[in-house]
Amino acid sequence: MVITKEWFTVEEAAEYLCVSKRTIYKLTKEGRLPAFRIGKERHRRFQKESLDKVPRPDEETANVEALLKLSAGADPVLAEAWGNEKDAAYDRITPVIKPKFTLKQLLAKVTKDNLHNEVDTGPAVGNEAW
Known about the structure:
Order of helices and strands: EHHEEHHHHH
CATH topology of the domain at 7-53: Multidrug-efflux Transporter Regulator, Chain: A, Domain 2
Structural class: mainly alpha
């Protein structure tokens, strides 16, 4: 006779979904995973049916990968939607804070008088980041 578990504790639910207990609490707080409170101490219990409806991490990754495959080159409808005049403003990336100086202005101030010589930091010790 096989007995299937219908109710899970927080720890068991976390193990069943392959996530941390913190994630279980977060899913409960967000309303994505219904929890039942039992006993005087109001411990949480989860139904197996509810746990099976929660997307697994590997399923979410697959969904993200599917979204990343969407591109204007792969889909002519997206190419038309993304390639219009109204969207051109979103194609330009501008810094949030404008720099005080341009690179050209900074390089113009470099002279032979203020240019320092190479600095010797000694022999390599094996943990340098190149």
